[in-house]
Design goal:
42% of the residues lie in helices and 12% in strands. It is of the alpha/beta class.
């Protein structure tokens, strides 16, 4: 069955789990914990779990604790915690017996390559055979704690069709409206991914770095209505606001945006550095106020990418960013 864009969008919006309210009781392992609520004045503030990448425990359970402690009720989930929870195979470091910077022999290089190929084959075999039951359990665990998962980042343009099916199965099991991935240049890949998204009724939302511009997504949008934007507005500013400001980008493309990433960066003219929020050139307050005024429903995803200050850690910094959003939306 082919859906119109309006039907597809309605389906995506209604697929997202409801957000919990502060103070409601939580069952199971989260009994006694308050449920987070980062839906602020109509704007869904989320976070990507990449923000917690430097913390030693990267399990799904620990990641959920970081999210809840940050006051976040909706997330973009990275592949590591999700796939580890589902039983992703681990692989040792093949070859490489020398220290850092040591010159490897041709035999060691060949050994490393063989180990990498074997690990990739094992991962593909696992992905194309694993049950979705663990992912459904992961979704329940997060939802029970008051956290919805609106996106998952596993997809790569170079995956096989069997792996594509796996990624969209995972997104469906987790309750996602979209899956995120880096924006490729290849038009055949863009169309193929969009076709998958249309068939599975889960958007493919492309992420941008310094290639972000007013026209960066034009080819993807034209090739398939299943292709959407997961634009990073901090990177957009650091790239030079090519073709218009971040808010102008949202005004033009809001109907094709599944989620946006928010971070503070210096402008290209000022060096482009990632900095603590409120000290850079990303117009975060203007972005959030525009989302509020126009009632755009795509999430604004907090991504902590600046250097963590001495004496702090990622959960504290994520919480600060969420508070910055709350203050901006008053």
């Amino acid at each position: 069955m082919i859906y119109t864009r309006r039907e597809f969008t309605k389906l995506a919006l209604t697929a997202a789990p409801a957000v919990g309210l502060i103070g409601q009781p939580v069952s199971g392992a989260w009994l006694g914990q308050s449920r987070p609520n980062s839906l602020i004045n109509g704007v869904q503030i989320g976070a990507i779990t990449y923000s917690f990448r430097s913390l030693p425990d990267q399990s799904a359970e620990a990641t959920l604790r970081y999210v809840v402690d940050s006051g976040v009720s909706a997330i973009e989930l990275m592949d590591g915690p999700a796939e580890a929870f589902a039983g992703r195979p681990t692989s040792g470091r093949g070859g490489g017996r020398g220290g850092r910077g040591a010159q490897l022999t041709p035999e060691q290089v060949a050994e490393q390559r063989a180990a990498q190929v074997a690990a990739q084959a094992a991962l593909k075999a696992w992905r194309t055979s694993v049950s979705m039951d663990k992912y459904k359990a992961l979704r329940k665990m997060y939802n029970d704690a008051g956290v919805s998962i609106y996106a998952v980042k596993i997809l790569s343009p170079n995956m096989s069709d069997e792996e594509y099916e796996y990624v969209f199965d995972v997104a469906e099991a987790l309750g996602c409206t979209h899956t995120t991935l880096e924006l490729p240049n290849d038009e055949a890949q863009l169309k193929h991914i969009g076709d998958f998204a249309m068939r599975r009724k889960i958007y493919a939302a492309f992420h941008t770095h310094l290639q972000g511009s007013m026209t960066a997504f034009d080819r993807a949008f034209a090739l398939s209505p299943g292709n959407m934007a997961n634009v990073d507005l901090g990177h957009y500013v650091a790239a030079g606001n090519i073709g218009g400001t971040a808010v102008e980008f949202l005004e033009k493309h809001h109907a094709r945006i599944s989620s946006v990433h928010i971070k503070d960066r210096k402008s290209k003219a000022n060096g482009g550095e990632n900095v603590p929020w409120g000290t850079g050139d990303t117009p975060i307050k203007d972005i959030l106020q525009a989302m509020k005024a126009r009632a755009w429903k795509f999430p604004a995803t907090v991504e902590v990418e600046y250097r963590i200050p001495e004496g702090s850690e990622p959960v504290t910094e994520t919480k600060k960013c969420v508070q910055y959003c709350a203050d901006a939306l008053k």
